[in-house]
Amino acid sequence: MERPELPLGQLHVFVVLAEELHFGRAAARLGIAQPPLSQQIRRLEDRVGHALFRRGPGGVALTPAGRELLPAARRALSGLAEGLAAARAVGGGRAGRLRIGFAASLALTVLPGLLRTYRQRHPGVDLDIREMTTAPQLAALHEGTIDVGLLREPPAEEEGALGFRTVLREPFAAVLPAAHPLAARRTVRLAELADEPFVLLPRAVGPQLYDQIVGLCAEAGFTPRIAQHAVEWQTVCALVETGLGVSLAPASIRRIRLQGVAFRRIDPGGARTRVAVAWRRDDPGPLVAQLLAAVGGEPPPRG
């Protein structure tokens, strides 16, 4: 029958005595009396099955078994100390790994500044940045494969399980081929796009944003005729450049520099797309709370 693992407290007493080779000095260093120290050593020797020290008129010396145990005992105690330090760092938010999902278009707006601020405040935290559209981010948050999401138009029905905090609201812009007649204007009326083919994101990757864009067209008196879908806004703009259609996009998309694409204000221009940070309400760990603080406002209450 195998013996149980050696208690770390007994290993600590053993290492101190092995270094001092004197019961009185070891007891003083440990802050205990000599009899408890001797009892700990005897219990440890019982577990090992061999004497660890020779006691005699000449003092205390390690036996061969004691010399063999000493480096392993030091490694065990060092590993424990390192583990405790690492646990304290993670528990205090000074270390760990934060998994962040983000919509690609946010790399053009809030993401760089947010990550820069977070890294300046918490340099010991590793950031795992994952490019994901809105629907996959919501699924990943529920599944626990990301800790925080940066997304557009979070669905209202998710408010119970997930928390959302608005980061910004930005207007929409018309995305046109540079040679399009409407590109000569500074502002385009939405109704003027009624007969144009559209290039849009698939509804599945961002239902709320998709519905908002279709809703804006409906308010202007038409249903957009969708000629092509593309998952990323950069691809949408590239397809517009080829003349496959026009699009409506968040205004920050104008930072995608394509020579053959024109971005124009729209009329009416009051609509805004909401950018939010999302997290699981029942799992606001210290790293998540710190990121929310970097976004602005107070960290969420603990569940």
TrEMBL record:
<keyword id="KW-0238">DNA-binding</keyword>
<dbReference type="InterPro" id="IPR000847">
    <property type="entry name" value="LysR_HTH_N"/>
</dbReference>
<dbReference type="GO" id="GO:0032993">
    <property type="term" value="C:protein-DNA complex"/>
</dbReference>
<dbReference type="InterPro" id="IPR005119">
    <property type="entry name" value="LysR_subst-bd"/>
</dbReference>
<dbReference type="Pfam" id="PF03466">
    <property type="entry name" value="LysR_substrate"/>
</dbReference>
<dbReference type="InterPro" id="IPR036390">
    <property type="entry name" value="WH_DNA-bd_sf"/>
</dbReference>
<dbReference type="GO" id="GO:0003677">
    <property type="term" value="F:DNA binding"/>
</dbReference>
<dbReference type="InterPro" id="IPR036388">
    <property type="entry name" value="WH-like_DNA-bd_sf"/>
</dbReference>
<keyword id="KW-0805">Transcription regulation</keyword>
<keyword id="KW-0804">Transcription</keyword>
<dbReference type="GO" id="GO:0003700">
    <property type="term" value="F:DNA-binding transcription factor activity"/>
</dbReference>
<feature type="domain" description="HTH lysR-type">
    <location>
        <begin position="6"/>
        <end position="63"/>
    </location>
</feature>
<dbReference type="Pfam" id="PF00126">
    <property type="entry name" value="HTH_1"/>
</dbReference>
<protein>
    <submittedName>
        <fullName>DNA-binding transcriptional LysR family regulator</fullName>
    </submittedName>
</protein>
<comment type="similarity">
    <text>Belongs to the LysR transcriptional regulatory family.</text>
</comment>
